[in-house]
Amino acid sequence: MTTDTPPLTPDGTPPGPQRRQVFQGRVIDVGVETVRLPNGQTADLEIVRHPGGAAAVALDGDDRVCLLRQFRHAGDGWLWELPAGKLEPGEDPFTTARRELIEEAGVEAATWQPLGRMRSSPGVFTEIIYLYLGRDLTALPHAHEGDEVIEIHWLPFDQALAWCLDGTIEDAKTLIGLFRAAALLGRAPARTWTPRREGDAD
User: Fold this and answer.
1) In the prediction, which pLDDT does 14 show?
2) Which of 8, 42, 116, 149 is such that its CA lies 20 to 30 A from the CA of 176?
3) Residue ranges of the chain with per-residue pLDDT less than 50
């Protein structure tokens, strides 16, 4: 919903957003924010604030990438994902990626390269996910939490890229992370592919 514009602040800039909190959870903060738009209008926007996260593309010496098959209630079942997690208070994204790779995949990487960042759903969601490529891996014990239902899989990198194209992998951070890793490594996915049809089995 848009309304008439509020007056500018004394220095000629739009006023900051006014916010009404609707829900505060363990991870997200939901509110309605009244903001001044670049076109001069104001709008009441439903915004979900999130601390952000980090994800790791872990590639081993046999050219296999770690993918987690994880049960996601909000995703209607099992999804293929990169090891990832949310930023803890005061934690930088690289520390999060390194920690989550150990906890979820049971490996530690000695060599890291950044793959940029992505926004999950910027129309309503403030989450930013930072992506990294990790190599030169060492096995360590994993530490899954009680509410995490996870299978750890190591797949040929080319197969993972094919799954990105045919729709087997649906998770956005995983798609972007794998494609950016492929670009960094000079690896192109297959040019011919057939997208999965609605209703195909996982």
Assistant:
1) 46
2) 149
3) 2-6, 8, 10-14
Cα distance between residue 108 and residue 129, in whole Å: 20
Inside any domain, residue 62: yes
CA–CA separation, 17 vs 34, rounded Å? 5
Name the H helices within the chain: 93-100, 157-166, 172-185
- Tokens describing residue 52: 């952000």
Same-domain status, 36 and 120: no
Closest C-alpha to 152, from 64, 70, 30: 70
Q: How far is Cα 74 from Cα 80, in angstroms, rounded to an integer?
A: 14
Q: Residue 135: which domain range?
A: 53-185
Q: Model pTM?
A: 0.85
- pLDDT of amino acid 165: 92
Distance of alpha carbon 11 from alpha carbon 130, whole angstroms: 35
